[in-house]
Amino acid sequence: MDTIQSILNAMLREAVSPQTAAVAIAVIGLNIHFGFTGLLNMGQSAFMLLGAYGFAISITHGLPLVVAILIGLAAAFVFALVLGMPTLKLRGDYLAIVTISAAEIIRYVGRSAKLTDFTGAAQGIPGSQYRDPFTKLSPFGNGSTQLMPFNYHDVAGGAAWVTILGLVLVAACVTGIVAAGRRLEGLTRNVAVVGLSVLGVVLALFLAPVTNQNTGVRGWWFTGVAWVLVGLSTYAVYKLVTSPWGRTLKGIREDEDAIRSLGKNVFAIKMQALVIGGLFGAVGGIMYVLPATVQPDSMGRSLTFFCYTALLLGGAASIFGPVLGSLLFFVARAFIIAATNAYVPDSVMSTQQTSQFAFIVVGVALMLLVIFRPQGILGNKRELRFNV
Amino acid sequence: MSESTVSAAGLADPAGRRALMAGVDAVPGSAKPDPILEVQKIVRQFGGMTAVDVDHLEVQRGIITALIGPNGAGKTTFFNLITGFDRPSSARTGAHWSFDGAKLDKTSASSVARAGMVRTFQLTKALNRMTVMDNMMLGAQNQEGENLLKSLFKPLWARQEREIEEKAKDLLDRFKLLEKKDDYAGSLSGGQRKLLEMARALMSDPKMIMLDEPMAGVNPALTQSLLGHIQSLRDEGMTVLFVEHDMHVVRHISDWVVVMAEGRLVAEGTADTVMANPAVIDAYLGAHHETDLGDDELLSDDAMQEIAQEVAAEAEHEGGKS
What whole-number distance in Å separates Cα of residue B274 and Cα of residue B12? Predict the structure, then answer.
């Protein structure tokens, strides 16, 4: 039972981690590119890296926090313009080629030894050099807090049946959310989904309480800000894509020439989409490095592909898909790592190898997903049926 | 000019249109009393092949003009050129075209549409993964909500959105698509998509609508109603230019016919004059275009003999020439 409990703890710890939230924000941006506009951006990690560099370098050079954030966003903005100008008039595949190479260029420039004074080269910029202004803003004070304070230990002394009953209830919540999402309509549906989601999260934290410092690295201050940003980004994207502007985005995804023949400036709209998705990427990047370091190699191609995996998992062109996808991606990875560490003997697979193994499993899962449920978990199957 | 004062109401009357076009010479590139579109020296080459080479063409305002010609005559390329989807090879050497008095030489496709010249495509471009209603709403021009900054504030565009929706419903009703408004465009039949595309183009209140083979793949009953729609558009004062292969359709609704072959204009005139023109018969219609190929009477001995004689006479004629 203790092993299961420790696996649960590892999963929950990963789920609430600010880095999961940071990737979710970047995926929300990628969803604007790929899901809604059909832009095949293969360099989302570069937007994240530029945001992170802009932010971190500004602070290490003594600029205030707000200015540093703005500089990070401006870097991503300029990057989007530079990428978009030559490629958005061409066919979609070219954007993919240009973005993936541009992302590599940014990464290699960042890790070049000539720039050691700015970017710290391959070592990167340690978080301690730029984290303080943000940490100081924390209203939470010192000490640490456990969520939930009332948890499985307090019921029947943490007996095994409490955990099992709790897991069954969490599963029931998930089933309920899916059923409500499919069957109900309008306000009742929203209330049911939100209510069950909150209940599910509370139950999960009850089963595997997470203890964190209030303010320190990966503390509740970081986590809280990151998830509030996820909420705000989701809301902003919801407002954008349900507006007439969002309608033109989907139109461009379907057929650019048709939209052109209706008198819309396709280039301008695509550029706006590229910039906005890139800005979300930059915000995600800043949030991603706050509890870590700005290390160019940790924000390379593989991060872009994690973003795509999360997006496809959750469902492209859906509002909550990116958030759900990122959560599932990191939680599933944490589960695989923790479970293989616990049950597979070291002679078969060492601790280092389990982490690699987790990626293999995630990759296979992605393949299965694309084959058997291409619309992802929240995507609209009806929409996908007419994919030409 | 007396002709140009003919009002839209006057053009709704067939006699009025005949009177208007009677004064126009039936020669390629002839001047029209009140042209809405004027094209000058437009050439498009693909490598060594000249797809379009039009010296001069004027399209009269307020009537239906048909553009006909054999496959590969350059009709669609010509459409692409004047709507900004393609650039003429002669762009620097004297290609000019103007729409409603405004030059279009360097205008992008979207600006051409905004100027009031909206087109449809030969291969229908319905936006499959969007609903019929969303397809229609995209057609409307000058939408406040399509501005990125304003789009976040619903009160700024909600009223306009409602108006556009009403207009879209009216048009869908007219094109018998209203009950499909919440279906995905991809679930419509080919003919319905043609209707949707035409209705979507009309959402922008164009001055001139250009239809590329609107009747291809549409069943006879639907063709009838489409023809009705096109005629009523004309009667409301819109200019229509359309490409079509069905001669019955062309004869039935067009007030003026332009014939292209191998990229050039070969004839112009009313449907009857053009169809009697030997150049057109040679290049496009064929000598037996009036004959119903499915008619069993063609299989009778008399008819066969007649055709054999005709062929023999033609062979003799050709032989005499050479």
Answer: 23
A235 and A373, same domain (yes or no)? yes
Q: Check residues A30 and A318 and name the one with the higher pLDDT.
A: A30
Distances (CA, A) of A178 to A184, A377, B104: 10, 9, 54
**CATH number for the domain including B241?**
3.40.50.300
Q: Are residues A145 and A156 in the same domain?
A: no
Can you tell me the distance from the alpha carbon of B251 to that of B291, in angstroms, rounded to the nearest whole number?
15
Q: Are strands B239-243 and A210-213 parallel, antiparallel or unpaired?
A: unpaired
Is B135 found in the same domain as B98? no
Q: Does the pLDDT value for residue A255 go beyond 70?
A: yes
φ/ψ of residue A9, rounded to 5: -60, -45
B218 and B172, same structural domain? no
* Residue A12 belongs to domain with CATH number: 1.10.3470
pLDDT value at A387 more than 60: no
Look at chain B and report how many structural domains it folds into: 2
- Alpha helices (H) in A44-159, listed in sequence order: 44-60, 65-87, 92-110, 116-119, 132-136
ipTM of the complex, rounded to two decimals? 0.83
**A157 and A143 share one domain:** no
List the domain range (segments joined by +) for residue B148: 128-187
Distance CA A119, CA B217 (A): 62
A277: tokens are 């998705």
Q: Are residues B122 and B221 in the same domain?
A: yes
pLDDT of residue B71: 85
- Full DSSP string of B303-322: HHHHHHHHHHHHHHHHHHH-
Range of the domain at A174: 150-208
Residue A264 to residue B184, Cβ atoms within 8 A: no
B53, part of any domain: yes
CB contact under 8 A, B109 and A382: no
Partner-chain contact A263 B111, CB within 8 Å:
yes
Mean pLDDT throughout A195-204? 89
| pTM score of the predicted model | 0.87
On whether both A202 and A315 belong to a single domain, the answer is: no
Sort out which chain A residues have CB atoms less than 8 A from B113's CB and list them.
Answer: 260-263
Those residues of chain A whose CB sits closer than 8 Å to some CB in chain B are 236, 239-240, 243-248, 250-251, 253-255, 257-266, 269, 272, 276, 382-388
